[in-house]
Predict the 3D structure of the following.
Amino acid sequence: MMNADLLLTLPILFPALGIALCALFWSNKNAQRAINLAASIGLLGSAIALMAAVHDGTVLVTRFGNWDAPFGIVFVADMFAAAMVLITGVMAVAVGVYGLAGNIEPKENAFYHLLYQGLLLGVTGAFLTGDIFNLYVWFEIMLISSFGLLALGGTRDQLDAGVKYVTLNLIATTFFLISVAFLYGLTGTLNMADIARVLPTVENQGLVTTIAVMFLMAFGAKAAVFPLFYWLPAAYHTASAPIVAIFAALLTKVGVYAIIRTFTLLFDGDAGYTGPIVAGIAIFTMVTGVLGAASHFDIRRILSFHIISQIGYMLFGIVVATPLAVGGSILYVIHHIVVKANLFLLAGVVNRAGGSFDLKKTGGLYRTMPMLGVLFLIPALSLAGLPPLSGFWSKFTVIKASLDAEHYILAGAGLMVGTLTLYSMVKIWNEAFWKAAPENATAAMQSWQADRRTRLIMLSPIVALACVTLTIGFFAEPFVDFSMRAGAQLLDQSVYIDAVFGPAEQLAEVNP
Amino acid sequence: MSSLILTTTSRLILPAALIFSIYVLLRGHNEPGGGFIGGLIAAAGIAVHAIPRGRTGLIALLRVWPKALIGAGMLLGIAAGIPALLLAEPFLTQQWPFASLPIGTTLVFDVGVYLVVIGSVLTFLSYYLEN
């Protein structure tokens, strides 16, 4: 049995090693591919080990450099964090394999593999860290890596998108930094568990609410919620399929994770004040996202707007703040990451086989590849929330939780947006799969059918992720049960605090 | 950019900067200094050498591409944390293998930082150098 130090270090050690080795062998493309894949598999393996250790409700802690909390930096893994790391590992391997199909040419050997591992490092670190300033550092690593990936192709569109992306995100991280500074001024500590036990004793609770709203703005911009989502549709549609798939899977979800983490651990007391604000944000996020998608014909744009729309559902847990709702949000995040990334991977296949990301210039894929149509329908219908797929259970849980808590407008908006999501998915189905293929698409189809290796590389991750969706759908019981327990664990702050400081130690002194 | 003044003075500046950077690196153990500032000093010295001689001059001096230095430095930084893990202590816990000598894993980490800083600065610089 591995100890907690090793379990918590390995998930960031593998991507860090991946970066180092990619930089060392930066001129050798095949070596970089092997390193990228090996590091991703290592991340997945260590995430499975971590999950095996915490799934029963234990919370693992490691103190880097053996400096005691709250002075040193701690990594904390509870069930929620471990689940996020595990799903990151799954995505890392799936998208990593897909990326081998050569979608990133001609710049693949320069930086792609290095930045890919950098993105994974930032995401994993953000999930595991128990220190609010350290969280900022992981956000920066993530931002720089994703900016690099976005601008990798070097085309005019991509640079334009990259500049918008990095500027709007830098504003968000600056907001984050300012809020951290305020929080430090108020509590005198940066350790999240320490902040959680000091915050209720702070005299100036008005300022605490202000900081909570500032955090909501900073993380909300990261998570692409209304009205701070502008960077996402401005950027995502320019990247190649594997890059945008890993973005869609992980980037906004780190923002959601940070919102859920801070609003369950730190700012739980004033849910009455921030609750209605978040409820409004959630409703507008869902509705604007789904309506934005309805007007577009580029698959990547449609799917990008749907990311925004789905983020709204993930906020239900913060609005309602019951174990059912928080657990539902966790289940939603897990389901969404798998489904959304898979849809972007499929969009890459539509582009390869159908000739274009633009729905008007492609078509007829169902006639030539009926199985691809089925593969598309699994994540697409799951995204819309049709039973018995994974989206049904996650939507069911969050909407039931909001009905239980008598948030009828929220629940109604959730149901309506589900229907509108179906509209967009049917649109993609009709245009890309059902209607007859246009003249210019046959050349792409011929080269696709001639290249057996590329087909295998691109389709196997899609099949694997579709199987994950089906598994969550048909064997929902363990997943729902796990999410509910993770949600209950999040709502009981003492579990987290005791894990970091030990249960015996009482709050000795509090800075004014 | 061929410049007689830079070419001549760099012959003096480069060794001086490298020696001083290593002094600062080692001094960082207990006093102000360390791998980051040492790396910047070394990179400044190498930059003075490389600017009049172009990218070929830079590679001839380093023998490797500067990106490889970043990788090597990161590997050293990670390696500095591994012994602690093997001893079932938290990652990056300092280890002092010699009882009397103040040489331990922190120095390895600092050398890693030193290399990463040199590598990063020179990677940026290499894009602006003449061939």
User: Anything to note?
Assistant: The two ends of chain A are 43 Å apart (CA to CA). The interface with chain B takes residues 3, 5-6, 9, 13, 16-17, 19-27, 62-66 of chain A (CB under 8 Å). The longest strand of chain A covers residues 60-63. The beta strands of chain A are 60-63, 74-77.
